[in-house]
Each structure stands twice: as structure tokens, then as C-alpha cells.
Design brief:
elongated; six-stranded antiparallel beta sheet; 6 strands; alpha+beta; 41% helix
Length: 198
């Protein structure tokens, strides 16, 4: 019997303000971009508008079944990564899926006892970070639970992690960081939200 990797993923556009207020998103933004976090706390709506903010909310249902625990190796990790990336092609999730897959890989090896016939354990997924490309600054979080199940017949890994992503225009992020804080607040309070006004 062949090992099985089943994954389904669905993403929807959501209100950027809602995602910004998620604790898992705000805490990493505050850590990595404290000036931007401070500005958005003071001028949430106009700040998000200036940053051309958009957001995505993803739910990924994952089921991995193995016939031999020895098969859970680097190849299987790459298989999980590839499956989820294919299902999430409308948004580039490579950085996020890479960290999620590595966490699953580490916890699988750490949590399963070798000489036990039946075993079941949940472990928590709690990841958040930022990355950027040429035009976007991306803040993301991935939270949820993964269940590891072992029986005499098979090994299973089940989970439904939730991924939230907040996108900012990178040039506008840099502009806010390089402008005096009080001037930023004053400009965002007015209707003059063009980058030329900073």
C-alpha cells in the first residue's frame, strides 16, 4: 500500500482591518516593524489604505498516511510541501508552507514513541513572521493543531491549520518609516493620502 498525502486548501479575501487586529498578526508586526505598528494603532483605517493593504484567510485540511514510519523522511516532507503549494497557487505561500512543513516534520519525530503499538497526540501549530518580495511586505500567521496517530496498521497525521496573511505595499512601508511620526499622523488624518504628500 502506497503512502498517501491528501490536502485541500481554500483561501478567501478578507477585510485587512480584521486581519491586522488578529493578535498573531499584530504581535509579529509590532516586533518586526514597530513604527508601522504604532502608526496603524493610531490611524488604522487611513494607514491601511495608504499601505494598499489586502488580506487573505486560508484553511488547509491535511491528512498524511504512512505504512512504515521509516518513510517519514525528507522526501515525505517535500511531498507535503509540494501538495499544499499546488493547492494554494493563487497566493505564494512558499515561505509559510516551508516553515509549517518543517514544524510538522520535527513534531512527528519528537512525539511518536518507537516501541508503542498505539499512540495518539496533538501538538500545537503557532507560527508567525514576515517576509517581502519586490513590491510587497507580507505579515503572516499560521495557527491550529496537528494530530499524530499510530496504530498497528498505519501512521497518520491530521490537521487543519489556519493561515492569515496581510499584504502591504513595500514602497509605502518604507515611506512611512522614513517620515517623522507626527507628520505621518497629520497626513493620514487628512484626505491627502498620496505618497507624494509625505
Amino acid at each position: 500500500m502506497t503512502d498517501i498525502v491528501v490536502a485541500t486548501a481554500g483561501g478567501v479575501a478578507v477585510d485587512a482591518k480584521t486581519i491586522f487586529q488578529e493578535p498573531s498578526i499584530y504581535e509579529v508586526l509590532k516586533s518586526k516593524k514597530p513604527i508601522i505598528a504604532k502608526i496603524l494603532k493610531a490611524r488604522t483605517s487611513s494607514g491601511l489604505e495608504f499601505l494598499n493593504s489586502t488580506a487573505q484567510d486560508y484553511h488547509i485540511d491535511l491528512e498524511v498516511q504512512y505504512n512504515d514510519l521509516k518513510n517519514f523522511n525528507k522526501t515525505t516532507y517535500e511531498n507535503i510541501k509540494e501538495k499544499v503549494e499546488q493547492l494554494s497557487s493563487e497566493v505564494n505561500l512558499e515561505v509559510i508552507i516551508d516553515k509549517l512543513s518543517k514544524l510538522i516534520f520535527e513534531n512527528w519525530n519528537k512525539n511518536q514513541p518507537v516501541n508503542v503499538k498505539k499512540f495518539e497526540k496533538n501538538f500545537e501549530i503557532k507560527l508567525n513572521d514576515t517576509y517581502k518580495n519586490e513590491i510587497m511586505y507580507i505579515i503572516w500567521s499560521c495557527v491550529g493543531w496537528i494530530k499524530v496517530k499510530k496504530s498497528e496498521e498505519e501512521f497518520k497525521l491530521l490537521g487543519s491549520p489556519n493561515i492569515k496573511i496581510l499584504f502591504f505595499n513595500l514602497a509605502n512601508v518604507k515611506q512611512l518609516e522614513e517620515t517623522e511620526y507626527e507628520k505621518v499622523l497629520e497626513t493620514l488624518q487628512s484626505d491627502q493620502l498620496g505618497i507624494e504628500n509625505f
